[in-house]
Specification:
By secondary structure, the chain is of the alpha+beta class. It contains 8 helices and 16 strands.
Length: about 325
């Protein structure tokens, strides 16, 4: 099948590679423009662009895929289907109706649950036992199109958003190839979504990583996993007579222990650093102070004088 592939981050790469390995003709790869990256803001190509160029595929980059001239240029390539995986732009009608098989999206949740840009993080945050991937035929409403195929998988008790996203990317790639085969054979059966079951999974920003200490410890442990690797779960240690120290929490677990107000240090000895929450206490296992390396709680306590009752929370 002649396919135009739309994708940008690492999540999309396995789907692109699976299409090529299955013998599909990728007529072009459409991706977001290069973005500044790193301390020196060096323009960096998206992962999908890097793979496409290495494979000798034509690459088109645009900040507005719905612009009339771009849509016309896309039509000249005569794709039979458009495959979208974490592209990062909303497609309008002129693009959605261009190929005869429509536009297929690889979405990292079991729709209609977790519609939106951050489905993996929200699945972990919600405490879902399982999630999965959905191949859907796109409509003008975000993540509301008819479902062509789904595959579920359990969420591991320590999986982070980064871990789970990588696993779902591979799962989605395999399911995409199977779905395209069914579509070509006329054996695909679109199923409308039940809007009453829909939940939202909006994009995260940097501020969303602030630990809400008034929530239960079990929720906060999921929060740490959900925010990894980005934006990272963070808090500030409000040290007496010193500026607040920003801490990124990489691993944590809920434990029973002495009562403590939310955000107040409950235990700070040996290898145990634990903080009060809305229910139970949260033991911090690995953390990273601003400007420093990731370290265990025991290493952190050896290098910093943390006292019972010290406050973790906003900087002021």
């Amino acid at each position: 099948m002649r396919i135009a592939f739309f994708g940008t981050p690492d999540f999309a790469v396995p789907s692109l590679e699976a299409l090529l390995e299955a013998g599909h003709e990728v007529v072009c790869v459409v991706t977001q423009p290069d973005r500044p990256s790193g301390r020196h803001a060096v323009p960096t190509a998206p992962p999908v662009k890097q793979v496409a160029l290495a494979r000798g595929l034509p690459v088109l980059q645009t900040a507005n895929v719905n612009e009339r001239g771009f849509a016309a240029a896309l039509a000249e390539r005569a794709p039979e289907a458009i495959v979208v995986a974490a592209f990062g732009q909303k497609l309008r009608r002129r693009v959605l109706t261009l190929p005869r098989h429509g536009c297929l999206n690889v979405h990292a949740s079991l729709l209609p649950r977790h519609r939106g840009a951050a489905p993996v993080a929200h699945a972990i945050l919600a405490g879902d036992a399982e999630t999965g991937v959905t191949i859907m035929r796109m409509s003008e409403r975000i993540d509301a199109g008819d479902i062509l195929a789904q595959e579920a998988t359990s969420i591991g008790p320590r999986e982070t958003t980064g871990d789970l996203t990588a696993r779902l990317a591979g799962l989605g790639a395999c399911l995409l190839v199977k779905t395209l085969s069914a579509l070509a054979a006329g054996k695909a059966h679109p199923t409308p979504q039940d809007p009453s079951l829909a939940t939202r999974a909006p994009a995260l920003d940097k501020a969303d990583g602030a630990l809400p200490w008034d929530r239960p410890a079990a929720y906060l442990a999921r929060f740490v996993r959900a925010m990894a690797p980005w934006p990272g779960a963070f808090t500030f240690w409000r040290r007496p007579n010193k500026p607040p120290l920003r801490l990124v929490i990489h691993e944590a677990e809920p434990v029973e222990g002495p009562a403590a107000h939310p955000g107040r240090v409950a235990i700070a000895e040996g290898d145990c650093l634990a903080v009060g929450t809305g229910h139970a206490i949260l033991r911090l296992l690995t953390l990273q102070p601003a400007g420093g390396r990731t370290m265990s709680a025991s290493d952190f306590l050896r290098g910093h004088r943390v006292a019972l009752g010290d406050c973790f929370g906003p900087p002021a």
